Structures are given as C-alpha cells and as structure tokens.
C-alpha cells in the first residue's frame, strides 16, 4: 500500500489497536464498593454496640455461691437488665467482687438508694422462696431507685429485700428485752390480718435489748398512733398465772415463724398518726400490752418475810379485784443485823386506771393520795389467784385496825408500802404459838396429879363413910318433906290472914291521904301557916341585922312632924 492511498486521520479518530483510557472517576471500579460497605456496616455495629452497652458497675458480696461470670443475669421484675462479666476475690480475700455490665436504659437508676441481692432457694419466715433457681440457677435481683445520687460501686445484701422501693408504707422500730421466736419476714398482724412484716432483728448498742424494725403497708400504717401497743404473738402462748392456764395461738405462719400483733386504744383512734421510725415497746403478751404505756405510774417496794412461791414477774396488783398495777421484780435479801431473810417485791402502780368522780384527775397528787390511803389503812397482802396453779398476786385493801408493818428501812429510792402476812401464815403462826404453849405445859405432872385425884375419888366412892353419909342425907330429905307438908297445912293460912290485914291498913292510909280527906286539908292549912311564920321570922332577922339597937331601944315610932 502506497502512501498516496492512505487517508489521513483526524485528531478524534481512534487508531486501530490503541486502548481507550478513561481518566478521573471514570476509572473507579465497582469492586471497591464491597469493602467500603462492609466497613460502614462494621463501624455502625461497633457504634451501636458501644452505645447500647450501659455503664459498668462493681458489686461486692460475701460469697459467689451460685454465680457464674458471663451467665448470671441482673433482673428486675423478671426482666434482664444486666449481666455479670467477671468474678474476682478482693485483696484481703474477705469478699468477692463482681463486675457487672448494665443496660444503657438502666443507667439513671444506679444511685446510692439502689439495692442488690442474690436470689437463691431459701426457707424463712416468709416461706420457701427462690425455688425457680434450682433449675435456672441463682440470679441477682435489683431494686432501682432514682431518688439518690449516682454511683458505680454497691454492696450487695445477703438476704432478699422484703420491701421494694415502690411499695408504700411506714417503718417503725420495736424494742424488747428478748427476741423470742421472731425472725425476718415474720408477719405483723392487725385483728388476725397480715398488714406488714419484720424487716430485721438486731441487738442494741449496749446489748441489753433487741430492736425489731417492722414495715406496715399503706393504708394500715395510718392506724398506728403514738400510744399504739405491740405484742409478741409468736407460736403457741401458754400462760400459767394467777388467773389459771390459758392457751393462745394466731395464724399458722405466726405459729411457725413468729408474729407481732398491735392495736390502738379507742380513745386514741382520732389522734395524729405516728411518724416513720417511731420507737414502741414490744410486750410479751396482750395482757401486758393492755397496761398503760403512757401516763402516770409509780414504783413501790413491798417486803414479805414468808414464802412467795407462785409470785412471778408480771403478776397483777389488784385493789378490790380491779387491776391497778404489775409486779416488776421478785428478789431475795439477807439482812445481816437481823440475821433473817426477806423478799423485796417491786410493783408499778398506775393510779390513772382508777376513775375520778367529783373532781379533775389532773389536779390530784397521786403520791400524796397513796400516802393518805396508807395512813387510813392501805395494806398489801399476797393472795392465791388459782388453787389449781398456785399462782399468787398482790392484793391491796383497806385494813383500818391493822398496824402498818414495814420490814424495810424506808431509806431507798423506792417508797415502801406496808404489808400484811398471808392468812394461811397467820393461821400457821397461831397454831405454832398454841403448840409452843402446849409444849410448856407440865403434862406429865398434871397426869400424875390427875391419876392421884382419880384414885382418891375412887377411894371416897367406895368408902363406908360415904354410904353412911348418903343414908343420913336421905333421912334429912325425908324431914324436909314433912316440914313442907306442915307449912302447907298451918303456915300458909296464917300468912294469908296477915296479907289481908295489911291490905286493910293500906286502904285506911289511902283514905287519909285522898284529895277530899279532911286530914289532908288540915295538913295543907298547917303547912301554909308554917310558911307564913317562917317568912315573918326571916323578915325579923333581916331587920335586926340592919338595926341591932332595936333590941334595946325598941322600934322607933313615927315622928310627930310627919
């Protein structure tokens, strides 16, 4: 091919065999989109994972029994809100540390008021709980509370929380000398209906008593007033006291796990309710709870020198059969200077249990009133409340003739009330005194003399002189009979004649002294004249006394010029 036959090419004409090269975005391959999309998806997933993860917190427990890292969940209302990621021991090996990853939507509820505890199978006062964990394994329950300040370290509780943060009610504190059979979760009852439960049991700081926090649910907490009384109704109560034998029991739950009852007096139902954490006394029985917990009370001491077997703490103090107090303690003392034993009995009297008529009880000085009653014969004596049980109680009554008997020195802090011995003791003392007097009798000597007297009487009865005397006495009796017969025949008629003569003489005297008798008239006239004569003599004597010269000169006559 010649050059003349070749056609010249323009600038835009592509020559055969030369590649078509594109420059800029036109050269980007679609294959690079795959790793780019993967990178974006991975970044989004990473961001989502980071964002979806909640905060990491630390829990502390005494043991990790039943807990497994990566498996044990954190639950609230049976919904998983977190998971245990790591379990380790503390530096001192005294507890375990759990690292927990919580859900992001739970971060606002991680405050110092939030509580954690492990749910395991347990047998408590509330019954058998956590049975579902036998199959599924233990888990950690959380009670969230957003009212506190945020934190990331928590101390888990070993026992389940009985009251959740969303349950409404009021917490109160009960105090007692001994715990008895109460346990955590024991019911709090009102008229036999469960309205609360025991939260905890703990010793006081001085270890002289126990404190029992209880929770009473709303609206029943509104019924708790300042003078509400609580008592232990645990198990089966058997009381052996002055009233006899009594048996009481509440619900089955209270029998097994213990329980607490309470009531409010009728006169306080309209008063203001007690605030949270108010402290109340926990009484042993309903009888003790019914005693006045507020108001005036006064302690007195009584001394007895005889046996007080059957008298125990809590026994009633009665006045005319009405309870007015309680026995607080019964002890035994040895008085060195007297070389004798005595029993001091401390009682608490509650005068406000006695109604006041005709005055204001607030104006009465109870101490002075009791002192006045003692002066007027108030005495204390032990009496038997039940002959079956032999239990004693203190009886107060008025004995105006009984002197006040004080066996103490009356110098203690507690005033002393006079006492009387028991009636049985009085009878025993009288019998003992009688026996002592009998023992002093010379019974042997008296017997010898009596035997001699009997022998002498036997000799007299059998003696001939006695027979002769009896015959003489018979003869004398016959003579007396004859004399009586003579008197009937002769003396009696003469006596009748004398009586008739005397009757006639008395009739004559009656005639002389009668109102119309001349003798009486003449006698009266003579008495009148005698009276006039005596008056004249009295006048003459008075004149001579004033004018003694008249005995010589005579009585002066009237003057001539007159």
3D architecture notes:
- This protein has helices at 33-52, 133-136, 252-257, 286-290, 366-375, 423-440, 443-462, 464-512, 518-546, 550-553; strands spanning 53-61, 73-76, 79-89, 96-103, 115-119, 122-124, 127-129, 139-143, 153-155, 169-176, 187-190, 193-198, 202-203, 210-217, 229-232, 236-241, 244-249, 260-263, 279-283, 298-304, 316-319, 322-330, 333-335, 340-349, 378-384, 392-398.
- The protein has 562 residues and is α+β, with helices and mostly antiparallel strands.
- Among the domains are: 49-155, no CATH class; 169-290, no CATH class; 298-356 and 364-421, no CATH class.
- A 7-stranded mixed β-sheet has the order 5-8-2-3-4-1-9. Strands 10-14-12-11-18-15-19 form a 7-stranded mixed beta barrel.
- A hairpin with a 2-residue loop joins strand 21 and strand 22 (322-330).
- The longest helix is centred in the C-terminal third of the chain and has 49 residues, at 464-512.
- It is elongated.
Rg over CA atoms, rounded to whole Å, is: 59 Å
Average per-residue pLDDT, rounded, comes to 76
Helix content: 25-40%
Main beta sheet: strand number and arrangement? 7 strands, mixed
Strand line-up in the sheet with most strands: 5-8-2-3-4-1-9
Overall geometry: elongated
Got a strand count? 26
Structural class from helices and strands? alpha+beta
Helical stretch count?
Answer: 10
Distance between the termini: 239 Å
Low-confidence stretches: 1-8
Q: What fraction of the residues are assigned to beta strands by DSSP? A: 25-35%
